[in-house]
Amino acid sequence: MRLTLALLPTLALLSACNTTPVPPHDPAQAWVELSMLNGKAILAERLDGKRLDDGRYFQVTPGTHTLEFRYDYEANAPLAIMSQPSERMCYITVQYNGFKAGGRYRIQARNLGIEPSALLYDPSNQVVAQDRSNYCLW
């Protein structure tokens, strides 16, 4: 019984970490959400070369920005036709010159075979940029 009571504060603290709400959208900035067509995980990593504290989104001032995110998915290694898929971890960079205050943008990552790609959509759902570089690890 004592052990159960001692664990309750720890469990409460851990569950609070997992349910941190996304902050409100600042109307003076553009909001960039992350999505994927297929894959296991997607996480915002860097904004203009600086590491982010929260990997769930980008919030940027109007203008030009370089966004780097991590995209994990399963793929078969080249020349390994009969092997099981393995997880591939990629870092993808997208640059866009026209972010506007109050706009809601969306990055969509996908993979065809072993190669990842990403598109940036503007608030009217038009493609405005695509990945300019990526590097992956097996």
Could you characterize the architecture of this molecule?
The chain is mainly beta and 138 residues long. The chain has one domain (25-137). It has one helix and nine strands. The protein has a nine-stranded mixed β-sheet with strand order 3-2-5-6-9-8-7-1-4, with no helix packed on it. A hairpin with a 2-residue loop joins β2 and β3. The protein is elongated, with a radius of gyration of 18 Å. Mean pLDDT is 86; it is low at 3-17.
Order of helices and strands: HEEEEEEEEE
Overall, the morphology is elongated
Helix vs. strand class? mainly beta
Major sheet description? 9 strands, mixed
The DSSP helix count reads 1
Q: Gap between N and C termini, in Å?
A: 46 Å
Question: How large, in whole angstroms, is the Cα Rg?
Answer: 18 Å
Average pLDDT score: 86
Whole-number tally of structural domains: 1
As laid out across the biggest beta sheet, the strand order is 3-2-5-6-9-8-7-1-4
Number of strands: 9
Question: In which range does the helix fraction lie?
Answer: 10-25%
Percentage of residues in strands: over 45%
Poorly predicted runs are 3-17
What is the element layout, followed by pairings?
Layout lengths: L1 H17 L11 E7 L4 E7 L2 E2 L5 E4 L2 E13 L10 E14 L4 E9 L2 E7 L5 E11 L1
Parallel strand pairs: 1-7
Antiparallel strand pairs: 1-4, 2-3, 2-5, 5-6, 6-9, 7-8, 8-9
